[in-house]
Amino acid sequence: MASVGPSAASTQPALPSGPAVFKTIPYAFILPEILCGTWVWILVAATSVSLPLLQGWVMYVSLTSCLISLLLLLSYLLGFHRNSENWKVLDSLYHGTTAILYMSAAVLQANATINSEFGVNAPLNYQLNSAASFFAFLTTFLYILHAFSIYYQ
């Protein structure tokens, strides 16, 4: 009698550890998420924050997301997940929630960009806010890609 093949449990892809994290989709998105998110808060911090309520939320979301994503990246690099399926659920929930929060921050940053067009130090602040808006939307897209890639994996 011929063997039917591997069991359903063994067909699940293993979670990457070490340098394999940078070669495996969706985990390879973590480093670009951190870098783009870092650019968001650096660019917002470089402006004369004229709308502290709007840009305060942008700073909070970007900085918190960067730190948590960095911890998640380190946990994958060091193998803390021990190939548990719960890590996939945690990763998907985190990236889905962060994508929603980042979308709200990106929209608020775009509003701050529009409001900074004719303010004090208008050309410089407008350019910095425009770049921050671009990176905020790019980071949102990366978090969405990551969340859906885990779901469809």
How would you explain this protein's 3D organization?
The chain has 153 residues and is mostly helical. It has one domain. Helices cover 69% and strands 0% of the residues. The chain has 4 helices and no strands. Helix 1 packs antiparallel against helix 2 and helix 2 packs antiparallel against helix 3. The chain is elongated. The mean pLDDT is 82.
Class computed from helices, strands and strand pairing: mainly alpha
Q: What is the overall number of helices?
A: 4
How far do the termini sit from each other? 32 Å
Overall mean confidence score, pLDDT = 82
| Main sheet record | none
As residue ranges, the low-confidence spans are none
What portion of residues belong to β-strands? Answer: under 5%
Shape: elongated
Total domain count:
1
Domain MARVEL: 21-153
Protein name: MALL protein
Subcellular location: Membrane
Pfam family, one: MARVEL
Topology of helices and strands:
Layout: H1 30-46, H2 52-78, H3 85-115, H4 122-151
